[in-house]
Design goal:
The chain is mainly alpha-helical. It has helices at 19-36, 42-50, 54-61, 63-81, 84-97, 99-104, 108-135, 142-171, 174-192, 220-248, 253-277, 281-301, 305-332, 339-368, 370-399. α3 (54-61) packs antiparallel against α14 and α5 runs antiparallel to α7.
Amino acid sequence: MNEQPTQQTTEVAHKLWNSNYIKTLLCNFMIYFSFMLLTPLLPIYLSESFGANKDVIGLVLSGYTLTALLIRPFSGYFVDSFPRKLVLLICFSLFAVLFGGYLVAGSLVVFAVVRTLHGAPYGATTVANSTVAIDVLHSSRRAEGIGYYGLSNNVATAIAPAVALAIYAACDNFSVLFALSLVTALGGVAIAATIKMPEKEIVRNKAPMSLDRFILTRALLQGGNLGCFAFSYGVVSTYLAIYGKEELGIVGGSGLFFALLSVGLICSRLVGSRSLRDGKITRNACLGALISLVGYLLFAAFHNPFGYYTCALVVGLGNGHMYPAFQTMFINLAEHSQRGTANSTMLVSWDVGVGLGIVVGGALAEYWGYGAAFWGAWIVNLAGVVLLFAATRSHFLRHRLR
């Protein structure tokens, strides 16, 4: 079955880069910059500050994924049922305040509690902000806008680890990083407060409460498929810094890794956004999945700087095509009144995959070494590619609503 390109004749009449859309991009940047400023170095922090081993690190760092997973279906419901800007401001404020908890966490248990609690507003904020971004875009520019929206967190992902490593090298003080994350997130709240939403009546759903009010059930196959790809990313992104330091003697290499990853993401998103606008959704998803598969193979097969850094660029190129295509699939499988639910379902799927990757990857690394963890990541990624070509692609083409 062939995909039908969308009409382009009206696209030029509708502005993509309106001020409110740009503000949502800045908010997204603030969310991911504040979060990624800490994420790559937390395994080192837990190891050096609390003496945690690899499987304990995996359990502690996966706590936020669990709470993000639990809150996202409900946040999708609230985003669809209440004023979206109000939901965004409340969730974003809670997300920012909890960065202060890291500053006062004096033990591994307290840190684990704060990290776990932090997942709830993180999960809700990402759902709310991405849904607001969709609302302020014209329908003719929506697929393209989704692709560019991801650039903001790609840039944050590139910059934040490099900034964190520079600060860590300069002062060897994680409190400075925690404080910078707090200030950055508060800046995002201030920007979000200035967004002007289009006038839309909130339609109250009178139907009895059911599962599809919280999870987009017609996109469960897409969700499971995306979870396979997220598993691989969870393993590699979490353990690459400590792996590079312990196994390859690469100190501070995660900054360059994420920079290369983001270069790949940005390049592929710039190209892929036009393909999405032309309706080539499953083509982008399949191409991106195949490219990423090669990247994870390089990381698993070559335990040297070549495999380490080449993987980053290749996976970036792949995910930059694949992730916006999957997000567009979720949106196109949902009714207009289910945009929040569609976004939350997609992010829940990603959270499940990343969380499992962190926990399983940590256990594999602890008992069988990093090689086993990274080969496990590649095998799960391969399963995701097979599922995409065998079932997910055709399922979307049969059931898409627009």
